[in-house]
Design goal:
alpha+beta; Immunoglobulin-like; 4-stranded antiparallel sheet; 7 strands; about 30% strand; elongated
């Protein structure tokens, strides 16, 4: 029996090859896992779930290419900014009509406690000449609230979408 083991050395080298292959695969997977773990941010700032804006009223003028929005904060937290988008109804992607979301009138760097507090309303007019389409009178307006943390805007998941007929 001892002579048979000495003759069959190919089986031993094959086993060594498989063990080395498994060790290399486990080592590479540990390196990739650690790289991805470090790459993935731990604390991602998020908007609170109960942050809501609603559209009380909306009116649109095709001749002046302006839209008048009356927004209310019906959530539990202060809203610092809003991204207002508008496009014709058949479009899926809507361009932003307030180029600077802080022009919403709620946030500036000097007065950090300013914002649309829960229960408050705000009325503002916006020009939509950049999204105006000749012969189209039915549009969709989308309002997405945002908050600021460490002077960085954080978009909320809650988006209000409202159809509007412009006359």
């Amino acid at each position: 029996m001892g002579q048979q083991l000495r003759k069959d050395k190919k089986g031993v080298s094959e086993m060594v090859g498989y063990v080395l292959l498994v060790i290399i695969a486990v080592g590479i997977s540990v390196i990739v896992y650690n790289f991805l773990y470090v790459l993935n941010p731990k604390d991602r700032p998020a908007c609170e779930d109960d942050t809501y804006l609603i559209i009380n009223s909306i009116s649109c003028s095709l001749s002046q290419k302006t839209i008048s929005l009356d927004l209310s904060n019906k959530g539990l937290y202060t809203v610092d900014a809003a991204y207002i988008r508008m496009a014709s109804q058949q479009r899926k992607i809507r361009p932003q009509i307030n180029k600077n979301p802080t022009e919403f009138g709620l946030w500036n760097l000097e007065n950090k406690n300013k914002g649309l507090k829960p229960g408050e309303s705000l009325q503002k007019d916006y020009s939509f000449s950049s999204v105006f389409e000749q012969g189209v009178s039915d549009y969709v307006v989308e309002v997405q609230p945002a908050i600021f943390k460490d002077n960085q805007p954080i978009l909320c998941k809650q988006v209000v979408t409202e159809p509007v007929h412009c006359s």
